[in-house]
Model the fold of this input.
Amino acid sequence: MLNDKIKRRDFLKKSSVITSGSLLLPSFLRAQSVANRTGRQLVVIQLSGGNDGLSTVIPFIDDELHRARPTLAPGKSDVLRISDEVGLNFSMKGFKELFDNGDVCILNSVGYPKPNRSHFRAMDIWQSGSDANEYWSSGWLGRYLDNECENPDQLTAIEMGNVLSLAMKGKKLKGLPVTNVNQFYSSAKQIKVSSNTHEHEMASFLYKTIGNK
Amino acid sequence: MSNKPIMRCTQLQVQHLLLRAGFGDSCEKVKQYTGSKPAQIFESELKSCATFREVHVDMDFTNPYTNNQMNQVDRQMMAQKGRNAVKELNTLWIKEMVSASSGLREKMAFFWHDHFACRSQNPIFMQGYLDVIRGQALGNFGDLLRAVSKSPAMLQYLNNQQNKKTAPNENFAREVMELFTLGRDQGYTEKDISEAARAFTGWGFRKGVFMERPYFHDDGIKTIMGKSGNFNGDDVLNLLLENKRTAKYIAEKWVRYFVHPSGNTKLEIKVADELYSTNYDIKRGLQIMFMSEVFYAKKNIGVRIKSPIELIVSVQRQLHVQIEDQNSLIFLQRMLGQILFDPPNVSGWPDGKDWVDSATLMFRMNLPKLIFRAALIQSELAGSFDDNDKFKMAGKLKKLRSNIDFDRLSDEFEDLDQLNSYLLQVNSISKTTGNSLIDQIVDITSKPEFQLC
Done:
């Protein structure tokens, strides 16, 4: 019994785990650019999931629609008309207002030739911006980061969420997914990183990810 | 007969196998296996998971989805109870992953959970689904495919309850080909999907049990991948299993998951052949993979980023820690981006480099500190008679509660070199520091290299 006690004591003795060690911020958070950022920001909102496009932007004049959806398709008076042929769903009043002010642009009926209807393929094409017969591993926003944001120390794009979307992945630079800003900041404060480079490919990837040059 | 001597595993290779075909293991087990042949180790692991404990959540309420007499408030309460029960099932499974004598069965069940990705708020459905993927984890892939396809959880998730003769729903038929058997764009057409959907019409469930509803079933002639007949759902699954592309697809996925993210064509062919010729015996396929010399090659070691579940479980298995509290376990899964029974969609979780970005990597590197600090505080508390202490610590404990077996740890570890070689599959470029064993463990497990297995 006494022995057990001593062992446990030995563990606790001199342990610095309970107190925090020396703090070093990953370089991209140290960059002053974060604090002094000015200028315009682009906000992209991606609503993932099934949306019934024909009940959102409604081609109410189209006979095909009424043939295909005899009970579902709304009549002329049940839509918020934005042209002689197309109207918005009646519940989109705020959206309509923005549209009338010229603050909204609609790209309707977007798709790709000979769709195989795979949900995942469609998302990949949408987020990468590739042609239907190409498979890309970078996204349209990520390529913007690659081309326009040269300083890898700068935090240039944030995604609210757990997993980074393909759209935010560049070949060199990537956006940063964050779910909880406070938690992110407090983690960052406690990270110690070595400034050496690693020969092992995956390990080197990790060192780069944590913010080392 | 080849005259090449049969390889014997080094410590690193033993760890490699135990991390990939499980969730890592104690130093004691690594020592015991070092110097053995791959076949001996794998057989021994198979043997120790031949029998397994139930992972079962007690549900003291009637199935909330069968009782139509309830009012709105009762219904909401039931739904809440249901969600809590799913959470409990989640953490019970993690605890089993941590404490099972071999991690092999749970690792395979975890792989199948990713392969047959599915979620439901209904604990009874999720329990049934978990029983299938754990029970058949090392059984027959055909049986597994059939059982998952008929589980209410999957039928509900992929809308087959709504798949009726008059209005076929193609969701299940599409995913069963694209994700569960043949693989995307592998030898099937749009027409095959809609024909297969007709065969699956009528498959549904009542009171949490699979049932075929003849009234909704289309019993006309269907033509699927060149074959015609009055096919039902089972016939379609058999057609898919008869197609060797299914064996190839599973083999490719395994090799990418268990051996190297870029795959290995030669090994994939061998594994596919074995799977196909044994009528999809999962054990036999795995044997080919985990007993092959190429699995133990240097280029395949340490090239995989631990998925969040692998990380959470392996830390506990390797270092005799237990995260006790349910909310802590859910919290960690959420922060790291992988929650059991809650995959992002039917194609499962993204793997490899997708697991880490600056934010999650930072959290991963702080995790050992959180776990061990909580364990130390817990242990301090146990020995303290000062109420004031307890009060002070209670706040810190809110987020994470863990226990650690100090005695086992200190018995197992002798020096720093041993600690480094046991915990890291890739040598670190930074020196390990720390005055006490715990400090050293925290230092090593906080290194980026610890994220690799």
